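Input chain follows. Return structure tokens only.
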Amino acid sequence: MDENQITQARGQDTALMRAERALPREPVVLDVSPEDVPHLLDYWELVRKRRWLVLTCALVVFTTVAIGTLKEKPIYEGKVLLEIDPEAPSVVNFKEVVNPNTGDMESYEDTQYKIIQSRTLAEKVVRDLQFYENPEFIRNRYLFGLFEGSVPPLPANIDEGPPDSTAPIFRNAVSYFMSSVDVNPIRRSNLVEVTFDSTNPRTAAMAAEKLADDYIENNLQVKFDATTKASAWLDNKLRDLRAQVEAADDRLAEYARANGIVFVGPAQTLVTERLAQLQGQLTAAQTDVMGREALYDQVQAGQIDTLPGIVDNALLQGLETHKTELERTYDDMSVNYKPDYPKMVEIKKQMDAVDRQIDKQKKTAAKTIVDGYHTALGKEKYLENAVEDAKKAVNDLADKTIQYNIIKRDSDSNHELYAALTERMKEANAAAGLNQSNIHVVDPSIVPTGPVKPRVMVNLSVGLLLGLALGVGLAFFQEYLDKTLKTPDDVEQFLRLPSLGVLPRFALAGATETGDPETETLALTTGSNGHHHLAPAIQTSPRAVEAFRSLRTSVLLSASPVPRLILVTSALPSEGKTTTAINLGVTLASLGNRVAVVDCDMRRPAVHRGTAVENNPGFVQCLTGHVDLANAVLPVAGVENLSVIPCGPIPPNPAEVLSSPVCADLLHRLRGQFDYVLVDSPPLLSVADSRILATLVDAVVLVARAHSTPYDVVRRARTLLYGSGARILGVALNDLDVERNGFGYQQYQYGYGYGYGHTPGDHDAA
């Protein structure tokens, strides 16, 4: 095959390679479902990783508590046990005035506790015990009592009596006294512990005892004042009520006299009584009329013989009997004698006389019945008129009684109130003479034998626990704020990309470590003859070599067929991509493969420094046609089968140079000459060079620095690569310190290109 055919075939392969790069690729996203609930070991690992923060917080808090505890003066506690009985002993029924149990029990007890801690009692105790002269009470205190000021000068006239309550020295004493008093009720009882804290045991006991005595005295004084005020109020009220009662009685009597209201009973007047009597008489008269009316009707009907006054009349019965006897005698004589017989005539005359008497008696009886009937009618009529008159009088009286009852009710109310207040007055006078209290001292105060504060062991234990809790909390909070990649699990969970390997932290041969990846520099390791022994970026430690071998295995097993032209890049500068590319090339070459590392970082090239080769000729000169590609391939000393193509002079337009067809042609030629070609490139998020190169290679390996690179930044880089149609093999987590206990975000500025702070000596150290 002649040279023209070779050139034509090479052009076809280049076109085919570009077409393959232009085809859209499906993003390979690892499906990783994070655990819903972290394991307890995860929490322990987090605390262990940030143990120095936890220990520092624990030490600071513990030391602070220890200093405060040891500087605190011993505090003694005086204690008095009181019984506060809500039912006040009382021999009179004057609870409205002196009984404290008139409201809710809980509110009453809370009120008493506040009274014990009141400023009034505090001022009385301070004044009586002259605590305003005690340095403990009048010093100013700072920082929760850890520091005390000097004793202020006492007033010149302090011997003449206590200072005014508004004086600063007196107010300081009262405030300190109030802050030292504590009230502790004992559950399920009426007992209360009143305590007082002081640096002097005798002062503590004396203050507690005096406070209890003043509290009981104040309770008695309050009751006495209440009963005295009640008595005075009742006395004034009684005088007013007495005058009101007398005025009401006079007004009631005057109204009754003016309106003729006379009572014969508790609720009955003469008018109403007369009406009742007339109504009774009228009812009797009506009954009598009805009874006489039947007899009157018989008389009118001529039925006189059957009248009760005729039938049961003894005289008529005697006359009837006598008449019967005369008629029988007359009949017997008429048999023998003629009617004109004198004896017969005499008997006849007697019979006529008896008839006349009988008729007269009947007429008299009938007339009596008729007269009685008419009399009864007249009486009934009279009583009806009398009842009507009485009703009118009662109605008229009722109208007058309304006002009378109003006046009477007012009078009765005044009488009742007067009687009640009179009774209360007697009770108040009796209660005012009592000296009973519902508060008693159960256990008096004694001088304490030992301090109650500070509790050294308790304070130190609490300080240690608080410090540990604060440290653990800060550790979790710091972990919550940490958005960087820390473990391979983070790579798979947050990036959804395979983790190709973990590269531990190591020092470059001949490197000067300053702690800042941006300022870390590489110095060539040279011998006495001026030649280097081994490239400074190549690792020889077993741990580092094994890590890069693991990365090599992951890359070789990541895809089928195995990619041969691989781009090594990162999202941010100083991620270690150059060192990773060189050492990955070393491990691939150790298998007998011919490997080339191409430095396409045309802004801050570092492959030549990492492999200890000259930067001339370089890949840029090959792109411009000034140097043949074979002349730019330089072997790496000490590593068989490994070659590098340095960058060469930095061009003014790196992106345009990499976008030229010559770049793709050169990479394709290298792909045919070497088993593996590793391309070092600038960071993805800083410039567009890496995205251009991603379209020319078989696959991409992302490098991220552990505990430094935020995963959202790497996500952005992943999105850019997928947008360029790149095939991402995975992420290599670099610079992982297994002993790390903290992290710090690095600066994201990248000093590539012109106008970005570039200096010829700068480079990517890793």
